[in-house]
Amino acid sequence: MTSVPRVPAWATTGILTLCGLIVSLQQTLVIPLLPDMPQILGVSADDASWLVTATLLTGAVATPIVSRMADMYGKRRMLLISLAVMTVGSLVAALGGGFPFLIAGRAMQGFGASLIPVGISIMRDELPREKLSGGISLMSATLGIGSALGLPLSGVLYSAFGWTSLFWSTALVGAVLMVAIRLLINESPQRSSGRFDVVGAIMLSVVLVGFLLALSKGSSWGWASGQVIGLTALSAVTLAVWVPLQLRTRDPMVNLRTAFRPAMLLTNVSSYFAGFAMFLNGLVTTQELQVPEDTGYGLALPVVTAGLAMVPSGLMMLCFSPVSSRMLDRWGGKPTLLTGSTVMGLTYLWRVFNSDTVLNVVLGNMFVSIGTAIAFASMPALVMAVVPRSETASANGLNTLVRSLGTSSGSAVIALVFASLTVSVGGAVFPSEEAMELVHWLGVTVALASVLVGALIPTRRSGGDGEYGTIVGASGPGSAKESVGVRP
């Protein structure tokens, strides 16, 4: 293991947070270009949608696998490998010159999704106890920050330098971060023993790909189509075989006994609904800002202006990360989760009746983002209160995966609502005002579900690895066995 110098906690937090930020940016940057990609690449609109689907699928598969390998073979090592694959994927997309290379590059970029749970697990090992909550909060907020900033940044880069600049920029940042990690981040001595569960990893990949592909393509293929039914059946059958196999395996891909503990299970279920609620925010806000006024609710802003109107929500997530940190230190993970999800739910309820001006839409977007920042900061704290140090990355990886399943479900449900309730304006079809109102009520419902499930999370347990009243194992220099006082 290469020895690297100790660096200040702020430097470790900054490097790892930038890793999370570049992940969310590279997922978002391509979205504003999707309407132009068929003409640029000479493909159909359905083919162009694979630019998003490919990243989604590989990210879902890579997150639990890379996280498990990080616990076994080294967190810093797997962070570098994931970042390298993502960076090479950006280069492939920029240099390939054709649609197949672009799809391959986007698929490789999906490996970056594992950077966030692995980065949080490194924080647990490296940061002193008084800095951990702040690091967790900031790292957790990067998803929303990058998503909000990616929309206007994409338009600027595309207009000034062409579409390949989106991939050159992420490749450059990825290369710089690899050097910074190599020089400044220590490899954690914490390792889990055993052998990597290859069969379990393959079967889990089949489950995830089948389910997510059916979910993401259901609206275009048809929910009753043979492809969707077949993929769903394949996913369900594989899952039915995978679960008992994992329970019998000595060193499973996913420790289901830990995952089924009430505290862990309820945290993940609440996270699913919180992820669902978070994803609704960006989709509904974009529609409200951009569609024509004749729809009855649209504000008809140009694309660039609408993108700039999304920036405050990302800034709110950044500004509220220290607030989330203080809440974690003072109240613990469970009250913080309940507070964040409640803020999201109340904001969606307000938006049902107050989405008629640009100011109200921007304010609604901002307050949902504030709730998201608070709720997302609590999840790693709740996870790390349950699992031993040797399973930190894999447990956080599972939680990240569950949240992504929530966002994917949100995307599919909204696509169904928008396709079912439409209005025609100038020969073009848009979601109707009833559809937007229904989506707002859906936001209220899933946020409430996150609160109700989160309220059931137990705050005490006996036995296991240490007290369930603390996060065990965020050790900084000179405090290798120090417990961290962030409560569940």
TrEMBL record:
Cross-referenced PROSITE patterns, in alphabetical order? MFS (PS50850)
Q: Which InterPro entries match?
A: MFS (IPR011701), MFS_dom (IPR020846), MFS_trans_sf (IPR036259)
Disordered: annotated segments: 468-488
Q: Which UniProt keywords apply?
A: Cell membrane, Membrane, Transmembrane, Transmembrane helix, Transport
> By what name is this protein known?
MFS family permease
Per the record, membrane topology reads: Multi-pass membrane protein
Q: Which residues cross the membrane?
A: 7-28, 48-66, 78-97, 103-123, 135-160, 166-184, 196-215, 221-243, 263-284, 296-319, 331-350, 362-387, 408-432, 438-457
Which SUPFAM superfamilies does the record associate with it? MFS general substrate transporter
Organism per entry: Nocardiopsis sinuspersici
Task: Report the main location listed first in the record.
Answer: membrane
Location within or outside the cell: Cell membrane
Source domain of life is: Bacteria
Which molecular function terms from Gene Ontology are attached? transmembrane transporter activity
**Any one of the GO CC terms:** plasma membrane
The cross-references to Pfam families, in alphabetical order and at most eight, read: MFS_1
Keyword Transmembrane in record: yes
Show the Gene3D superfamilies listed in the entry: MFS general substrate transporter like domains (1.20.1250.20)
Carries keyword Cell membrane? yes
User: Where in this chain does the record put each Major facilitator superfamily (MFS) profile domain?
Assistant: 12-461
